[in-house]
Amino acid sequence: MALLSVLTPALALVLCMVVGFLFLKSRAPGTSPQGAGQAKAASEKEFRPWVDQDLQDDTEITTGGGDKDEWVESDDEKDLAHVPYSPQRYPEETMLQRSKDFYSLMNQRRSVRFISPEPVPREVIDNVILTAGTAPSGAHTEPWTFVVVSDPETKHQIRLIVEEEEEVNYRQRMGDKWVHDLARLRTNWIKEYLDVAPYLILVFKQVHGILPNGKKKTHYYNEISVSISCGILLAALQNVGLVTVTSTPLNCGPQLRLLLKRPTNEKLLMLLPVGYPAADATVPDLKRKHLDGIMVAI
């Protein structure tokens, strides 16, 4: 009895420790079937292989990150003059016809991977880029850089970088579903058009501006702004009879930025091979949605 009376407090202490350990373990994330399921779901949600980490949009409404003195407080031009705006106005019949003509032109636009090496006048490309630069942008920061490459050796270096990363994308990063969805389009990591096309246009977004005094300037909605300019660029190319394919090679941005000697505030958003279609060019027989499939009238 004396021994039992001595051991009872010790047994009670051990029992309390065991119960407490089991309770804490049950509260740990992922230990219960429900917790494990939630952890798995979160992991699957975070796994987005199509998101290029170099393209994460770090736009902030306020200047954040780094030394505050690195950022400019505001533009020197505080009172911007406003001028009259009177664009041409068309009769309704002309408006309707122009809308039909433009739709007909743009409805012929296709992603073309078979591009002719035939030379294209450089002035045409310059005007196309100027047109893309008319896009709206957050606070009129114009956060885009269009790098036009025609040098054969540089184009080949770009192809080597892209094909090396794209092979890894197809074999590892993209996953079976994505590769399967692309199979009917007959695409792969071989990008011959990067050598053949007379021009490559690499579109970079500027995540922030760099002023002559070295300070940084916030670029609001920089990725959305540059994406709009890319849409106008595609329309401008279609307007002059040139073709392209919207290429967004994953994980090539840093290498291409270094190759093209672009500053660190620029991130590659899109790569467009540009030229005339090859004589034997083919495209998938795709159909576009009808109006009632893309528009909701309220």
TrEMBL record:
The chain crosses the membrane at residues 6-24. Its EC number is 1.21.1.1. The keyword Nucleotide-binding does not apply. Keywords: Flavoprotein, FMN, Membrane, Oxidoreductase, Transmembrane, Transmembrane helix. GO terms for biological process: tyrosine metabolic process. It comes from the Eukaryota. It comes from Fundulus heteroclitus. Its cofactor is FMN. GO terms for cellular component: plasma membrane. Residues 55-82 are annotated as: Disordered. It catalyses: 3-iodo-L-tyrosine + iodide + NADP(+) = 3,5-diiodo-L-tyrosine + NADPH + H(+); bromide + L-tyrosine + NADP(+) = 3-bromo-L-tyrosine + NADPH; iodide + L-tyrosine + NADP(+) = 3-iodo-L-tyrosine + NADPH; L-tyrosine + chloride + NADP(+) = 3-chloro-L-tyrosine + NADPH. This is iodotyrosine deiodinase. One of its GO terms (molecular function) is iodotyrosine deiodinase activity. Residues 108-276 form the Nitroreductase domain. PANTHER family: IODOTYROSINE DEIODINASE 1, NADPH NITROREDUCTASE. The keyword GTP-binding does not apply. Belongs to the nitroreductase family. It is an enzyme of class 1 (oxidoreductase).
